[in-house]
């Protein structure tokens, strides 16, 4: 554990608000050096370390060799997008995300400059920092509502971190509950903390549920101070995401509906949130407001997305939509404006994206959007469909689609899904999933949906995929494959006596 947890308590000093955080992504110090600083003595002061955690969720702080593809939540979402079939990376470019796209990162687990280390270190850093805040609950002074605001967010951050660790370092929840997942820590960790063994998938999800339920309870009745903070509605949204993976349809429906109501957000027409770069938009439930002195320039989401900007996308590593998915849109679908089939840069690949654009190319700025209310409607629709509540499912689907396609109606029924994502059945569930794929393209990590749905996928040149990324010799058609399950970084085994590099390492190949 020593090597993983040397990056602790991020951005603490001089970071009383998010906008005043230090320009550097991480200011690291051992947690045991925090004693006596007073930062956790009262709820108001505790905003400093809390804001430090959030700052690292959109900053670039990975080791130098990996920095430009590691900028917190949005980089991990982008990683999971290029691992699927709908989100095309047209060329290698400078190399960033290309090896994620080709599933060629797992054998680099001994390096701190590759994906395994980055994800493990990132999420466990947030877990560790959340634990340190939670340990101060009994001694923290201040109004109880203010304390609840701090502690509720710490529980939510820990729940979110373990949820993403479980989705990255183990197979999907349903059917794999007894398989090894990741170690659980609920107490502050210091340099000499003994490492824990891997817990099972079920044990990790039990911890996730405990944390997110506590977060919801504590955050209810509090007022959010910043869009980057996880509030009551966002915590409900995270619970809905968790329930989808667990195939707990009733909870997914109830949490998504409650999140919609609590958020006060509304579905917007496409023209009202162009560029997806404004966290003040009325459909945004959670995001990060990026100001010019916190821009990470090349190492940023829009650098990799906006081909009209000055970042990596402009250099040829174009991000495009699959032609097959584009063709699933109605001719009147206003979301077609998010992509351009006529762009001369398309070449033989997919269609160039306009969905994500810099707000200001000169300052490299644009807000990161991590949760929109549209997702909650589509989540509720999927859950209701699976519960046999088709009328309600169509109503929630229409809440989004009425703002996308004039006169939209859906008469489909049933829950059939194809073995592959390209095997179309014509069911209502498939329609909901298809609209989810289009609506949330580039936002939440396509591979996570593919795996929870237990579908395989293929990439073809007809979709627009370059030949180098077709994965024709890989088992993408097998939902039980270990292809996407990341290897655990060697640094964890080096510092954790309770982790065996022979018996505890995930398969380096595609099968166990």
Automatic annotation (TrEMBL):
Pfam families noted in UniProt: SusD-like_3 (PF14322), SusD_RagB (PF07980)
Keywords associated with the record: Cell outer membrane, Membrane, Signal
Family, similarity comment: Belongs to the SusD family.
Sequence ranges assigned to domain RagB/SusD in this UniProt record: 348-507
Official protein name in the record: RagB/SusD family nutrient uptake outer membrane protein
Record's signal peptide: 1-25
Cell location: Cell outer membrane
PROSITE patterns: PROKAR_LIPOPROTEIN
The keyword Translocase appears for this protein: no
Native organism: Parabacteroides absconsus
Domain SusD-like N-terminal intervals: 104-244
Gene3D superfamilies from the UniProt entry: 1.25.40.390
């Amino acid at each position: 554990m020593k090597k993983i947890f040397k990056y602790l308590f991020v951005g603490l000093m001089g970071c009383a608000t998010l906008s005043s955080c230090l320009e550097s992504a991480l200011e690291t110090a051992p947690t045991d050096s925090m004693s006596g600083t007073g930062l956790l003595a009262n709820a108001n002061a505790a905003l400093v370390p809390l804001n430090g955690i959030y700052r690292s969720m959109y900053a670039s702080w990975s080791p130098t060799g990996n920095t430009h593809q590691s900028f917190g939540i949005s980089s991990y979402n982008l990683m999971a997008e290029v691992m699927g079939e709908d989100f095309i990376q047209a060329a290698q470019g400078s190399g960033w995300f290309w090896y994620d796209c080709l599933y060629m990162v797992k054998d680099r687990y001994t390096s701190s400059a590759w994906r395994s280390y980055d994800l493990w270190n990132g999420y466990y850093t947030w877990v560790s920092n959340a634990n340190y805040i939670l340990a101060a609950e009994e001694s923290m002074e201040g109004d109880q509502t203010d304390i609840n605001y701090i502690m509720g967010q710490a529980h939510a951050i820990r729940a979110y971190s373990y949820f993403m660790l479980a989705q990255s370092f183990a197979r999907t929840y349903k059917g794999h509950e007894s398989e090894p997942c990741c170690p659980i820590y609920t107490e502050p960790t210091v340099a000499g903390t003994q490492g824990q063994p891997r817990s099972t998938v079920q044990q990790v999800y039990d911890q996730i549920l405990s944390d997110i339920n506590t977060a919801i309870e504590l955050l209810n009745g509090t007022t959010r101070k910043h869009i980057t903070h996880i509030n009551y509605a966002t915590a409900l949204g995270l619970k809905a995401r968790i329930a989808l993976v667990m195939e707990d349809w009733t909870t997914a429906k109830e949490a998504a509906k409650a999140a919609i109501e609590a958020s006060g957000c509304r579905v917007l027409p496409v023209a009202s949130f162009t560029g997806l770069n404004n966290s003040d938009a009325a459909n945004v439930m959670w995001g990060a407001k990026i100001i010019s002195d916190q821009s990470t320039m090349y190492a940023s989401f829009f650098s990799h997305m906006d081909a009209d900007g000055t970042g990596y996308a402009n250099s040829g590593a174009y991000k495009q939509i699959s032609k097959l998915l584009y063709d699933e849109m109605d001719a009147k679908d206003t979301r077609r404006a998010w992509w351009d089939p006529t762009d001369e840069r398309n070449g033989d690949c997919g269609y160039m994206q306009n969905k994500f654009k810099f707000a200001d190319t000169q300052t490299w700025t644009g807000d990161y959007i991590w949760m929109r209310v549209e997702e909650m409607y589509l989540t509720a629709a999927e859950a209701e469909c699976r519960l046999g509540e088709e009328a309600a499912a169509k109503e929630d689907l229409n809440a989004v689609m009425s703002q996308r396609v004039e006169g939209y109606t859906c008469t489909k029924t049933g829950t059939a899904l194809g073995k592959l994502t390209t095997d179309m059945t014509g069911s209502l569930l498939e329609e909901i999933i298809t609209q989810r794929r289009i609506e949330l393209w580039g936002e939440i990590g396509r591979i996570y949906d593919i795996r929870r749905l237990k579908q395989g996928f293929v990439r073809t040149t007809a979709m627009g995929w370059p030949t180098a990324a077709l994965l024709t010799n890989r088992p993408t058609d097998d939902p039980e494959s270990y292809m996407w399950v990341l290897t655990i970084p060697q640094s964890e085994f080096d510092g954790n006596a309770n982790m065996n590099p022979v018996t505890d390492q995930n398969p380096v190949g595609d099968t166990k």
